[in-house]
Amino acid sequence: VQLVESGGGLVQPGDSLRLSCVAAGFTFSTKIMKWVRQAQGKGPEWVSTITGDGTFTTYTTSVKGRFTISRDNAKNTLDLQMNNLKPEDTSVYYCSVTPVVGSVVRGQGTQVTVSS
Fold it and tell me: At the N or C end, where does the chain have fewer CB atoms within 10 A?
């Protein structure tokens, strides 16, 4: 199982970024996928989840209305469109999957820094 995130960067408050995650090594379309973030010195924070077929999504309260999770099962990719970014969104962002019960896999992460 391999997950590779990209798209992070340094942006100003109010800007947008689109994160991507390329998945390999498992049947992507059958798996719930998640975005999780971790700020420096803090524990991981769940951000968003999408079902295998993409029909159901859910978000943590702080990003609702600003972030949109999506997936392309033909390309084995997971995206996170982040709009109106705030300094408190600064974190390393990871995509995450549970390929088998009891096993959680996440990628190497991509850094998002929101600062003026």
Answer: C
